[in-house]
Write a structure and sequence with these properties.
The complex is a heterodimer. By secondary structure, chain A is mainly alpha-helical. Chain A is built from 16 helices and four strands. Chain A has two domains: 243 residues, Cytochrome Bc1 Complex, Chain C; 123 residues, no CATH class. A two-stranded antiparallel sheet of chain A has the order 1-2. In chain A, strands 3-4 form a two-stranded antiparallel ribbon. In chain A, helix 5 runs antiparallel to helix 6 and helix 5 packs across helix 10. Chain B folds into three domains: 128 residues, Orthogonal Bundle (Cytochrome Bc1 Complex, Chain D, domain 2); 55 residues, no CATH class; 34 residues. In chain B, the strands form two sheets. In chain B, strands 1-2 form a two-stranded antiparallel ribbon. In chain B, a hairpin with a 6-residue loop joins strand 1 and strand 2. In chain B, helix 2 crosses helix 6 and helix 5 runs antiparallel to helix 6. The longest helix of chain B is centred in the last third of the chain and has 29 residues. Chain B is globular and about 80 Å long. Chain B starts with a helix and ends in a 6-residue tail after the last helix. Classes of the chains: A mainly alpha, B mainly alpha. Chains A and B meet through helix 4, helix 5, helix 10 and helix 14 of A and helix 1 and helix 7 of B.
């Protein structure tokens, strides 16, 4: 951790412990971490995400005690949890809705990082570890969605594992190896359950690295300049613990709204139908948090090309720190790029909208035939990639940024932070 | 500046959420011409509860009409007497003791293994038994129903886009009882062609509570019963939800005041 320890043991017992295992010192220094004094509520999502991860693990461990990973029993065991297991009616929707809330928070957290340039020197690794967490989260979310063994579970898994089959030469054998057979069956469900239980702990480890990295380089802030003096920062506790705690309580209100009053609003009715390999649902749609990538996948007619674009859409995030050539971090001082970013955000939502609809349906009724979702998603996909290249590198070179404040303290006191 | 950006974020978020809200159900409905009318169910809304007499009549409709083809895979007889269930009796907190539930269980035949000979035998149900399967397997079910497997009804309402409104619209959506090659026209069914014959006619059954059994009344009652069967813990969930909201709201308020207190000497 950065900085010198300010901890002074007050009692003999503390001194005794501090000499042998400075765990209290570690905790005190950790919580006293100097944080820029101008962090806004968008910075509360780190804390919110920690809560989401804990909530998923705790509810998940209890659900795993009652769930049965067997193609003949999985669907019934989920119903049994909802009907007969004490508080199962609460835990099951908490876990299912919790996944959505987790992704909601992670998207806000990522867009916040992109807006304030939190991926720039010296935070490239911090950002990359974050991208890794997101990638493992996606895998965990996908694996978890197959476990209830409903129609969407089964067919979603069929579509996603089919991606691997499209890889040239090794695709088919790779797909069989992943599935444990020629098609999705009991071996698939059992390994998916095992991995779904494993991956959250890998996320925990990555979160440890992520937090370590942020404590080493320090938090970025809305104006994107480094703290220079002591007056630029505040100790994390109690200033940001209290601010984050309030933000978490508000987030929990939204969480509770879905868990108690709209538990099925984010899911799909077809997943209340038992998986049936003989009946394909009319529309196979993934969970909402995968919809933008699903739209990118379907934007091109060639399967392999679509898969490469879809994985490319995630891969490009990893090199974002080197694509954005601007020295100024925060979009607040980048008057033009800021609008490119807002369009990028809108395009993300448009891709989600396209992913939820059939590619050939009409999205916008203009012209003689109207514009299909396929074409809307093609335009949005093009912009998605164009934002990373060439918009960001070029804007970094040509944009005239606004003057940066001298220090965080000055910006705060003049009301600009 | 912060305000403009926050506003831009918020506008985008709200606009896109409403886009999702509109687009997802519209697509999922299947794109047919069928119209599902919204009904004013007592279980709608944040304080909605199930109508107990309607559920009880609905069970009678299920038993006397639907159960000739449709199973309730995820229900046991004892669930009928659970707290929040149609035949809950506060005097019998353990539904296995509830005499009404016991009597209903007796109406059904379940398969057991004879404990002396080990041979399969038929027996009358007890509250702990599950509702029995109607057909031995899906092939038999399809063979007796013109090739269409009658779906399980215990979670039919969450399993259909439109939920209770859809099931009610389906049950009341037949315009004639004439079939073309075993297929009936139903305005609510996606595609309009359904293999289930119109199941409900006026005065098809005689309600135990004396309510007049019009086909619409029966459709309404059985939908109420199936809504409970699909989401039996809805009432407790909403009650706990309200308490949770109240708690979180006050808690958030207190945290906000604490936050302001902690920051009061810091200019920001």
């Amino acid at each position: 951790m950065s900085g010198h320890s300010t901890y002074e043991p007050k009692y003999a017992a503390e001194r005794w412990l501090d000499k042998r295992l400075p765990i209290v010192r570690f905790g005190v220094d950790f919580m006293g971490f100097p944080s820029p004094r101008n962090l806004n509520y968008w910075y509360a999502f780190g804390g919110i995400l920690t809560l989401c991860l804990m909530a998923q693990i705790i509810t998940g461990i209890i659900l795993a005690m009652h769930y049965t990973p067997d193609v003949d029993l999985a669907f019934d065991s989920v119903q049994r949890i909802r009907r007969d297991v004490p508080f199962g009616w609460l835990l099951q929707p908490m876990h299912a809705v919790g996944a959505s809330m987790f992704f909601l928070a992670v998207y806000i957290h990522m867009f916040r990082g992109m807006f304030y340039g939190s991926y720039k020197n010296p935070r490239e690794l911090l950002w990359i570890i974050g991208c890794l967490i997101y990638l493992v989260m996606m895998a965990t979310g996908f694996l978890g969605y197959t476990l209830p063994w409903g129609q969407m579970s089964f067919w979603g898994a069929t579509v996603i594992t089919g991606f691997f089959g499209a890889i040239p030469v090794v695709g088919e054998s790779l797909q069989q190896w992943l599935l444990g057979g020629y098609s999705i069956g009991n071996p698939t469900l059992q390994r998916f359950f095992s991995l779904h239980y494993l991956l959250p702990f890998i996320i925990c480890a990555l979160v440890g690295l992520h937090v370590w990295a942020v404590h080493h380089v320090g938090q970025n802030n809305p104006i994107g300049i480094e703290p220079k003096s002591k007056s630029d920062t505040l100790p994390f506790h109690p200033f940001y613990t209290m601010k984050d705690a309030f933000a978490i309580a508000v987030f929990l209100l939204i969480f509770a709204l879905f868990v108690f009053y709209l538990p099925d609003a984010l899911g799909h009715a077809d997943n209340y139908q038992r998986a049936n390999p003989m009946v394909t649902p009319p529309h196979i749609v993934p969970e909402w948090y995968f919809l933008p990538f699903y739209a990118i996948l379907r934007a091109v007619p060639d399967k392999l090309m679509g898969i490469m674009l879809m994985f490319g859409a995630i891969a490009v995030l990893f090199v974002l720190p080197w694509l954005d050539t601007a020295k100024v971090r925060s979009m607040r001082f980048r008057p033009i790029t800021r609008w490119f970013f807002i369009i990028f955000l809108v395009m993300g939502f448009i891709l989600g909208w396209c992913g939820a609809n059939s590619p050939d349906d009409i999205a916008i009724p203009i012209g003689e035939h109207g514009m299909s979702f396929k074409w809307v998603s093609r335009i949005a996909t093009l912009y998605y990639f164009a934002y990373f290249f060439p918009i960001l590198p070029i804007m970094g070179w040509i944009e005239k940024t606004k003057p940066l404040p001298d220090s965080i303290t000055k910006a705060v006191l003049s009301g600009d932070a | 500046m912060l305000k403009t950006i926050t506003k831009a974020f918020a506008t985008v978020a709200i606009a896109s959420t409403s886009l999702f809200a509109i687009s997802i159900p519209a697509k999922a409905a299947g794109g047919g011409e069928h119209k599902i009318e919204k009904q004013n169910w007592g279980f709608n809304g944040p304080f909605g509860t199930y109508n107990r007499p309607a559920m009880q009549r609905g069970y009678q409709v299920y038993k006397e009409v639907c159960s000739s083809c449709h199973a309730l895979e995820h229900l046991s007889f004892r669930h009928l007497g659970d707290k929040g269930g149609p035949f809950y009796d506060a005097e019998f907190p353990n539904p296995n003791d509830n005499p009404v539930v016991k009597a209903f269980a007796k109406d059904w035949t379940v398969e057991r293994i004879d404990q002396d000979s080990g041979d399969p035998m038929d027996d009358t149900g007890i509250p702990a038994d599950k509702f029995p399967d109607i057909f031995p397997n899906a092939i038999a079910a399809a063979a007796s129903n013109g090739g269409a497997v009658p779906p399980d009804l215990s979670i039919i309402i969450p399993a259909r886009t439109g939920g209770a409104d859809y099931i009610f619209a389906l049950l009341t959506g037949y315009d004639s009882d004439e079939s073309h090659d075993g297929v009936y026209h139903n305005a609510a069914f996606p595609g309009g062609a359904i293999k289930m014959a119109p199941p409900l006619f006026d005065d098809l059954i005689e309600y135990a509570d004396g309510t007049k059994a019009t086909s619409e009344q029966m459709a309404r009652d059985v939908t109420e019963f199936l809504a409970w069967s699909g989401d039996p813990k809805m009432e407790v969930r909403k009650t706990v939800g309200f308490a949770t909201f109240l708690f979180l709201f006050i808690f958030a308020l207190l945290l906000f005041m604490t936050y302001k207190e902690v920051w009061k000497d810091v200019e920001h």
